[in-house]
Design brief:
Helix content: over 70%
Structural class: mainly alpha
Radius of gyration: 25 Å
Largest sheet: none
Oligomer: single chain
Length: 128
């Protein structure tokens, strides 16, 4: 399959990180970079980085990933709210009167945990 400029840029970023870490010498970096820019297929790009570890994500990349995961948790919370409210509504309809809105307790605790995760300070020695 033919590669895009973005694919080439990703490989060049890995090669540059490897040069900065001392995993590649300048001559080998230049050689691989030239081959990356001339590559037309994914296989040609793959061989350039197979012996190199993936670079560590930047703080900005980690923050974006953390935000995406946190927002996904809120979507789960919303799904739980819909399901619990549906159970509460069906039970109230069966009884013929509105009963105590019991989903407020589990939803409140769940929301408090999500807010605490957002404001809790994150250490610099993140093991993930």
């Amino acid at each position: 399959m033919r590669v895009s400029d973005r694919d080439r840029d990703d490989v060049l970023r890995v090669l540059t990180a490897a040069l900065a870490e001392g995993r590649l010498d300048p001559h080998e970096h230049a050689s691989r970079s030239t081959r990356a820019l001339e590559a037309r297929t994914g296989d040609e790009l793959a061989v350039l980085t197979t012996d190199l570890p993936a670079p560590e994500p930047t703080w900005a990349e980690r923050d974006r990933k953390d935000l995406a995961e946190w927002l996904a948790e809120w979507r789960y919370w919303l799904g739980g709210a819909v399901i619990m409210s549906g159970v509460w509504g069906a039970d109230s309809a069966r009884k013929g009167e509105l009963s105590y809105y019991w989903p407020v307790m589990p939803l409140g605790v769940w929301a408090a945990v999500l807010v605490a995760v957002a404001i809790w300070p994150r250490g610099t020695d993140d093991a993930s």
